[in-house]
Automatic annotation (TrEMBL):
Known EC number: 2.8.2.-
Enzyme class per UniProt: transferase
Protein name (record): Sulfotransferase
A Pfam family assignment: Sulfotransfer_1
InterPro entries cross-referenced by the UniProt entry: Carbohydrate_sulfotransferase (IPR016469), Gal/GlcNAc/GalNAc_ST (IPR051135), P-loop_NTPase (IPR027417), Sulfotransferase_dom (IPR000863)
Glycoprotein found in the keyword field: yes
Record keywords: Carbohydrate metabolism, Glycoprotein, Golgi apparatus, Membrane, Signal-anchor, Transferase, Transmembrane, Transmembrane helix
Length: 391
C-alpha cells in the first residue's frame, strides 16, 4: 500500500520524535546515575573533635569512645607528624587532612605511608586502647560489647589482634569520631565539610590558656617533638624560657582563627560546628555531654550517664597526664589558679589576651584576683551562641 506523502512525513517526524525522547530519557538516566555515584549518601556520622594539647580533649574523646555506637581513634595524625618530625604544622596540613578523610571512610590503608612495611597489629595505632571499638567485637572478642571497658584491660587482652580488624570495626559502627590536635586553621577542613561522601560535624574544644600552659609545663618532655613542629624553624632562634610562650601564642592564635572562620561560613555549614569550653564541661558534665550527644545524634544511655558522673567526681587531680581516669573535674579546671605563679599568668595573658576575651575567659589583673576562687573568671556569656545569632 502506497502511503500519501503527508502521512509519510507525519510517520517520519513521529519516529524521529520517539528517538529523541528515548535519547533524552537515556541521557537523563545516565546523568542521574553519575550524580548518584559522585554524591553518595554517607553511611556514617563523622565527628571531628578539634582541639589542642592539654585542653581536655582526651576526656572529651572518651565521652565519645565509650559509646557503643562509636568507632573512635585518638589523634591518628600523630603518625604523620612522627614521620616528618623536621617539618612544620602548615606543611603537614594537607597530609593530615587526607589521612583524616581516609580514616573517616574506614580506609585504613592510608597508614601504610606512615608505618613500617610488613604485618602489623591494631596495637600499631597510636593510643589504640583508648578506643572502645578496638577493645570489643568485632575487633576483639575477649571483652563484652555493651559495657564500658577499661584501657588497662584492653591493652592486655586485645593487643595481638591483626591490623585488619580496625577497618572491620570502623564499618560496624554508625559514628566515626576522631580526636585531633594537629589542625591550626579551619580553611584546610573546608573540602571535608563540603565532601558529599562525608557527614562531617566538628566539636571544637577550647580551654583557658592559663590552664593549658600549666598542664603543658608538666608534660614538656612528652610534647617536645610536637612543640618543635608547632614553632617551626623559629624554635631554634628562641631562648629556652621563651619557647613555651611562643608555642602558646601559635596555639591561641589558631584557636581564635578557627572560631572566627566559622562565623563566615554559610549557615548550613555553621550548623556543623559546636564550640565547647572545657570549663563548662567540668562544671556540668552531664548536661554538656548530653548537648554533644544530641548534636551528633547519639543517645545518652543510662550506663554512660553513670560513667560520666563517676569519672568527673573522683578524688584528686587524676593519674597519668595522658590517661582518662576518675578525677575532680572542677578542681582540675581551676588548678592553675593556685599553682601557676602570677608572673607567668600575666605574661601569658598578654600573649593570649585576644583569644581569652573572645572565648569568655576574664583576665586576672593581680595575684589576689588569681587566687580568689570566689571570683569567677569564666564569663557566663556563651561564645557559641554568637555564631548562630549572627547568621
Amino acid at each position: 500500500m502506497i502511503l500519501p506523502p503527508k502521512l509519510k512525513l507525519l510517520l517520519f517526524l513521529s519516529s524521529q520524535m520517539a528517538i529523541f525522547i528515548l535519547f533524552i530519557h537515556l541521557y537523563s538516566y545516565n546523568f542521574n546515575s553519575q550524580n548518584m555515584k559522585e554524591e553518595p549518601n554517607p553511611t556514617h556520622m563523622h565527628v571531628l573533635v578539634l582541639s589542642s594539647w592539654r585542653s581536655g580533649s582526651s576526656f572529651v574523646g572518651q565521652l565519645f569512645a565509650q559509646h557503643p555506637d562509636v568507632f573512635y581513634l585518638m589523634e591518628p595524625a600523630w603518625h604523620v607528624w612522627m614521620t616528618f618530625t623536621q617539618s612544620t604544622a602548615q606543611r603537614l596540613h594537607m597530609a593530615v587532612r587526607d589521612l583524616i578523610r581516609a580514616v573517616f571512610l574506614c580506609d585504613m590503608s592510608v597508614f601504610d605511608a606512615y608505618m613500617k612495611p610488613g604485618p602489623r597489629k591494631q596495637s600499631s595505632l597510636f593510643q589504640w586502647y583508648s578506643s572502645r571499638a578496638l577493645c570489643s567485637p568485632p575487633a576483639c572478642n575477649v571483652l563484652p560489647q555493651n559495657e564500658t571497658i577499661s584501657q588497662s584491660d584492653c591493652r592486655i587482652l586485645c593487643n595481638q589482634e591483626p591490623f585488619e580488624v580496625v577497618e572491620k570495626a570502623c564499618h560496624s559502627h554508625s559514628h566515626v569520631v576522631l580526636k585531633e590536635v594537629r589542625f591550626f586553621n579551619l580553611q584546610v577542613l573546608y573540602p571535608l565539610l563540603r565532601d558529599p561522601s562525608l557527614n562531617l560535624h566538628i566539636v571544637h574544644l577550647v580551654r583557658d590558656p592559663r590552664a593549658v600552659f600549666r598542664s603543658r609545663e608538666r608534660t614538656t618532655q612528652d610534647l617536645m617533638i610536637d612543640s618543635h613542629i608547632v614553632m617551626g624553624q623559629d624554635w631554634q632562634k628562641l631562648k629556652k624560657e621563651d619557647q613555651p610562650y611562643y608555642a602558646m601564642q601559635v596555639i591561641c592564635q589558631s584557636q581564635l582563627e578557627i572560631y572566627k572562620a566559622v562565623q563566615s561560613l554559610p549557615k548550613v555549614l555553621r550548623q556543623r560546628y559546636l564550640l565547647m569550653r572545657y570549663e563548662d564541661l567540668a562544671r556540668d558534665p552531664l548536661a554538656q555531654t548530653a548537648r554533644m550527644y544530641e548534636y551528633v545524634g547519639l543517645k545518652f544511655l543510662p550506663q554512660l550517664q553513670t560513667w560520666v558522673y563517676n569519672i568527673t567526681r573522683g578524688k584528686g587531680m587524676g593519674g597519668h597526664a595522658f590517661q582518662t581516669n576518675a578525677r575532680n573535674a572542677l578542681s582540675v579546671s581551676q588548678a592553675w589558679r593556685w599553682s601557676l605563679p602570677y608572673e607567668k599568668v600575666s605574661r601569658l595573658q598578654k600573649v593570649c589576651g585576644n583569644t581569652m576575651n573572645l572565648l569568655g575567659y576574664h583576665l586576672a589583673t593581680s595575684e589576689q584576683e588569681q587566687k580568689n576562687l570566689s571570683l569567677d573568671l569564666l564569663s557566663t556569656w556563651s561564645p557559641y551562641q554568637q555564631i548562630y545569632q549572627e547568621g
